[in-house]
Specification:
The complex is a heterodimer of chains A (268) and B (288). Chain A has 268 residues and is mainly alpha-helical. Chain A contains eleven helices and no strands. Chain A has one domain: MetI-like fold. Chain A is globular. Chain A starts with a helix and ends with a helix. In chain B, helix 3 runs antiparallel to helix 4 (100-108). Chain B has a single domain, classed as MetI-like fold (Orthogonal Bundle), CATH 1.10.3720. The chains are: A mainly alpha (268), B mainly alpha (288).
């Protein structure tokens, strides 16, 4: 088999796997477009009734508010701690770094249901009442390491000579940080924030055990799936998928236009 | 900069907030789980006399069945995902060129949708009168029961959910293979298969192994696949743990089961992570 045929085969295989990955999302979209209360395929009466119902429901507004509050708070805290964590991960050479790198990865390599239950025990032992605040903490345990890793990948490509040059030109520590380090690492920070927000937004196992009486969208959807299905479930499911897609492609588009602009500026 | 006796050097100083957080948010909860596992059954405090009662109860019970299912399904998931993902990982690193970021994004999006929702999409596809069987009935009049709530569907669900966790480390691994070495092997007369076995696979091994590890570890703790797609055909160990914590209200027993699972996961993770140079795996792509 020559190279061309092999590459074509790889393309075909990849597209086939992508179809496998998006098939359920397509089914969810179809299920949200029915007028009837139950899901029967092929759909006889198409309509957006359930979209209207879902978006006008006060309960759903409340869920959105809880999920967004958690995700925003997680994003801010995770990016700040993860940014410095990434500098320690990839920028500076220090003796305990190999150990540190592996410790940071441990929460990622850990079953989340078990982590959620462990945090439940811990909050109970500390006498902390469960609410969306404890859920923020729980999300952070998993999301900070992910964000650290995402920003680290950007930090690896960072040239420390840039910082040194700025110091030599008489810039203060704060100036160097604000004018050199931060702008160069910005793409990593942006993708880190996207990851933090979206991972928190979609998380189920950690929220389930740690947010007490507050309910997030994934929890609500699960409860509805188990008992009391309405086409509101696929409506919210579609919204989640589309939100993730729009944010990610939007971020990527910003990144490419930003890079094109800077390379153009450098060439002039 | 001048050395100061009370100031940390920049590495540890930047690592400090994260380390403190992980101490409070990760290490301490795991300690709490270990402590609870030695408490008498059905207690909710940590002040009783420690004992091995829960572990003795577990070894006398049939929890080993759930353990076996979880291990078996996690292993099968890894075995199935390796050949599914390798060509895609190779494509992302070497074939897709300017399309590579788009394809990467397309594989990333599902990670941000709760797996319950995505698995429910499969339920809608496979259920009686769902997308597959409803369409079949419409066109052929056949009224079949479908494969939902069988072991095979649970396995497919796991392959589906954990695919990105195999794919992304694998593609980092494949991008570590320098094109020159591969071309040199070709020039020296190696067949395509030999190049794969003698050059590409060994050089991409760190990424491949981390993909195996991540997939196995997450799959062994998987619960949603069996719950949503499996009905009650298999009970994974995580579900045993969950039942002990919720319906049975027996936290110490749940904690002891969790400790056994953590022991398996922890040993594997430590063994694999300590073998590879993480700088090389994560940094190589950006530097080349």
């Amino acid at each position: 088999m020559n190279q061309r045929a092999r590459h074509a085969l790889i393309w075909v295989w990849t597209i086939a796997v992508l179809i496998f990955i998006y098939l359920p999302a397509l089914c969810i979209l179809l299920a949200s477009l029915t007028k009837s209360r139950y899901f029967l395929f092929p759909i006889r009466r198409w309509g957006l009734v359930w979209w209207h119902k879902t978006f006008n429901s006060i309960e759903v507004h409340q869920l959105f508010q809880t999920s967004i509050s958690i995700a925003l708070m997680v994003t801010v805290i995770a990016v700040v701690i993860g940014f410095f964590g990434a500098l320690a991960f990839a920028r500076y050479d220090w003796r305990a770094r190999p150990l540190y790198q592996r410790l940071v990865l441990l929460p990622i390599f850990f079953p989340q249901t078990v982590l959620g239950l462990a945090l439940l025990l811990w909050f109970n032992a500390m006498g902390l009442p469960l609410s969306w605040h404890t859920a923020v903490f729980a999300h952070l345990v998993w999301i900070i390491p992910v964000v650290t890793l995402v920003i680290s990948i950007q930090v690896y490509s960072f040239d420390p000579a840039l910082e040194e040059a700025a110091f030599d030109l008489g810039a203060s520590r704060v100036q160097v940080f604000r004018e050199v380090t931060l702008p160069v690492l910005l793409p990593g920070i942006v993708s880190g924030s996207l990851f933090a927000f979206l991972l928190s937004w979609g998380n189920f196992p950690l929220s389930l055990y740690t947010d007490g009486a507050d309910t997030t969208i994934p929890e609500y959807l699960y409860a509805k799936m188990v008992a009391g299905y309405t086409p509101g479930v696929p409506v919210l499911g579609t919204v989640s998928t589309v939100t993730a897609g729009v944010l990610l492609f939007g971020g990527y588009w910003l990144y490419t236009t930003h890079r094109r602009a800077t390379t153009q500026a450098n060439n002039e | 900069m001048k050395a100061h006796p009370f100031r940390l050097s920049p590495g540890p100083a930047n690592a400090l907030p994260l380390m403190i957080f992980l101490l409070v948010g990760f290490a301490a909860p795991l300690m709490a789980v270990i402590a609870y596992s030695f408490m008498p059954a059905r207690t909710f405090g940590l002040l009783d006399h420690p004992s091995f009662g829960n572990y003795i109860e577990i070894f006398g019970s049939n929890s080993y069945i759930s353990f076996t299912w979880s291990m078996l399904y996690a292993a099968l998931t890894v075995i199935l995902l390796a050949p599914i993902c390798y060509p895609i990982a190779y494509g992302m690193a070497k074939v897709f060129g300017k399309w590579s970021p788009i394809i990467t994004l397309l594989f990333t999006i599902p990670l941000f949708v709760s797996e319950n929702v995505r698995l429910y999409g499969w339920v809608l596809f496979l259920i009686k009168n769902g997308v597959l069987l409803g369409t079949l009935k419409e066109f052929t009049g056949l009224n079949l029961d479908g494969p939902l709530y069988t072991r095979w569907v649970v396995l497919m669900g796991m392959v589906y959910v954990y695919l990105p966790f195999m794919l992304f480390p694998m593609s980092l691994g494949v991008s570590m293979v320098p094109d020159e070495i591969r071309d040199a092997a070709r020039d020296l007369g190696a067949s395509r298969w030999q190049v794969f076995r003698e050059v590409e696979l060994p050089l991409s091994m760190p990424g491949v192994m981390i993909g195996f590890l991540l997939t196995f570890v997450l799959a062994v703790g998987g619960i949603a696949e069996a719950k949503i797609l499996g009905g009650q055909v298999i009970i994974p160990i995580t579900q045993d743990i969950e039942i002990a914590f919720t319906y049975a209200q027996n936290w110490p027993l749940g904690a002891a089961l969790a400790c056994l699972l953590m022991l398996v996961v922890g040993t594997l993770v430590l063994l694999v992570l300590w073998r590879f140079d993480l700088d090389k795996i994560l940094g190589r792509r950006a530097r080349s």
